[in-house]
Amino acid sequence: xxxxxxxxxxxxxxxxxxxxxxxxxxxxxxxxxxxxxxxxxxxxxxxxxxxxxxxxxxxxxxxxxxxxxxxxxxxxxxxxxxxxxxxxxxxxxxxxxxxxxxxxxxxxxxxxxxxxxxxxxxxxxxxxxxxxxxxxxxxxxxxxxxxxxxxxxxxxxxxxxxxxxxxxxxxxxxxxxxxx
Amino acid sequence: xxxxxxxxxxxxxxxxxxxxxxxxxxxxxxxxxxxxxxxxxxxxxxxxxxxxxxxxxxxxxxxxxxxxxxxxxxxxxxxxxxxxxxxxxxxxxxxxxxxxxxxxxxxxxxxxxxxxxxxxxxxxxxxxxxxxxxxxxxxxxxxxxxxxxxxxxxxxxxxxxxxxxxxxxxxxxxxxxxxxxxxxx
Lengths: 180, 185
Fold this sequence. Notes:
The structure holds 2 protein chains of 2 kinds.
Chain A: E1 20-27, E2 31-32, E3 35-36, E4 49-54, H1 59-71, E5 82-90, H2 91-96, E6 100-103, E7 111-115, H3 130-145, E8 148-151, H4 172-176
Chain B: H1 7-15, H2 32-40, H3 44-58, H4 74-89, E1 95-98, E2 104-110, E3 113-119, E4 123-130, E5 136-141, H5 145-163, H6 171-184
Helix pairs in contact in B: 1-5, 4-5
């Protein structure tokens, strides 16, 4: 359906503006009423970036990685955090919002970092200043506004069976239409 | 910045609230004052749910989100518990969300605007954002318990004034209330 994942030499290190970037969503911490919460894109302490996946590797690959993330969460959580679906963004929109997305295949092939390019909080007392928090929330809100959130109808099975993740591009006819 | 002495300015903010926004009035046939005092109180299931939610968050372990999220520090849990108690007592029961950096956020949102407070080991930060007007930043420290409680109560008062303002009494309600008094006499 989504093809075989790319080999290292097939995946360019540079992420083009047209690429689709994927963030795995877990419920209940990342999602509320079908919409992604800000927490879904908040970095950890001392970090300025969050982990994302390059959709060029295939949607099935993205789902598999998301399931692995959920599987690595320890037991005993009430309620448990489980894989819910995928959030997608275009690289161009990430950059337009003032953030950056770069390949980080040292983690695994297909991994990338979505860097908010804003100051990180410290590990010791991980609360930002009011101005820093406002800047981060504004950045995340801008990203969420242009993102697409899709719940996986079959989160326990292999393979992505919902709508394609590809964000629709304007067709040449639409681009040429008057007033567009 | 939100200060403990803010209570005096809350009335100004309330009267500035656009009158065409929806209110929380439930038409029970009681007077407006009674209706408001009833609707303002958090329902018992809400309180139980938020307490369970809070306990679950405080028990989170490292990597609770699959992305290496930090567990909740004991001091953060203590500070957040104090905040939740104040908010519950004030009738503004928040949504409770853990953050990957090991803090706890309390969030409110409706058609009037949004508010959130993020609480850590020794500090808190957030904002109250009424729709269509400037936001009110919130920031402070938790070390002085008395001052911290004052801050929390001020936050609760402003959240209530901005997001859950009491209904404006109507002529119909005043008439009903007066009739009720005459019958009782």
